[in-house]
């Protein structure tokens, strides 16, 4: 797979996540955050497990305990990010949530420098800042008074950055993208379900009322989109992946306008253009410089 194809996979993942934002919010009318996350990721596990099993059967070498430990750490980061985001949606605005979640665009390259002592391509820094600016403009260019939910969303952005960062390391090392996906889904689903059984009430009626949301989020927003993320990150860097995944905010606004009749302000359209510009720069500039270097060699 080429880097362009990988980045297109990440762009499609962002589109699916953007389309699922309304579904994710509406599910909270029937279910608590832990039950929704648990059921969502158990459905995702069931959807991806047959493909992961086929991948394992075709592999020439077994997965080591160290690799499974890494997959578990990725699952725990996903669980923490999903829970803090879902709890944040209870008390924060859509505007604040969309912008603050996008902070992982900046956090991922910082983690790369601090943990791996590896500087990303220089275009990633202006690209990340442009993506963050675009998300801010898309949210309306302002933030209301910060609340507890906003604080939880900032924590969510950190865990999201850890998940993207770890996948950037272990997706390519393991060569098992679907196994990684199914394993992280199972870890998240089990942790959330155990927490839900302890902390939240549940009824079959509540599950039926949120049945469509659980199915969509489980099969598409979780099973398909996160698998595309893992596959795409095998062939690109984590900082670049974070920028393409930040297109979630752009698609969320677009689907909100098309499906729910919400309006995008003029400054929001500027934000869409800025996010698109950031993705173009991250994709095109390294390629141009690489070709120029080869021509001079």
TrEMBL record:
InterPro entries with a match to the protein in the record: Diverse_Substrate_Transporter, EamA_dom, EmrE-like
Subcellular location: Cell membrane
Chief localisation class: membrane
UniProtKB keywords: Cell membrane, Membrane, Transmembrane, Transmembrane helix
Keyword check for Signal: no
Domain called EamA: residue spans: 7-139, 149-282
Membrane topology listed for this record: Multi-pass membrane protein
Name recorded for this polypeptide: Drug/metabolite transporter (DMT)-like permease
Organism: Rhizobium aquaticum
């Amino acid at each position: 797979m080429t880097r362009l194809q990988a980045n297109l996979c990440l762009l499609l993942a962002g589109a699916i996540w953007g389309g699922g934002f309304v579904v994710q919010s509406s599910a909270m009318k029937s279910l608590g955050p832990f039950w929704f996350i648990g059921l969502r990721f158990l459905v995702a596990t069931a959807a991806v497990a047959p493909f992961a099993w086929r991948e394992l059967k075709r592999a020439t070498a077994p997965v080591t305990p160290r690799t499974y430990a890494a997959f578990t750490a990725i699952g725990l980061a996903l669980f923490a990010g999903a829970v803090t985001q879902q709890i944040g949606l209870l008390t924060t605005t859509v505007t604040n949530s969309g912008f603050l979640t996008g902070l992982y665009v900046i956090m991922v390259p910082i983690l790369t420098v601090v943990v791996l002592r590896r500087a990303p391509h220089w275009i990633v820094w202006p690209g990340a800042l442009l993506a963050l600016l675009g998300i801010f403009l898309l949210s309306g260019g302002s933030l209301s008074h910060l609340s507890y939910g906003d604080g939880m969303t900032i924590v969510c952005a950190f865990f999201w950055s850890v998940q993207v960062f770890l996948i950037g390391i272990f997706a390519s090392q393991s060569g098992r993208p679907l196994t990684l996906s199914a394993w992280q889904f199972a870890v998240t689903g089990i942790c959330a379900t155990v927490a839900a059984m302890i902390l939240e009430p549940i009824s079959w009626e509540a599950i039926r009322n949120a049945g469509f949301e659980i199915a969509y989020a489980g099969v598409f927003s979780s099973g398909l989109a996160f698998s595309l993320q893992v596959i795409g990150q095998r062939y690109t860097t984590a900082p670049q992946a974070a920028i393409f995944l930040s297109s979630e905010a752009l698609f969320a606004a677009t689907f909100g306008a098309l499906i729910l009749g919400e309006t995008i302000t003029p400054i929001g359209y500027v934000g869409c253009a800025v996010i698109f510009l950031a993705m173009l720069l991250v994709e095109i500039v390294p390629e141009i410089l690489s070709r120029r270097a080869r021509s001079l060699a």
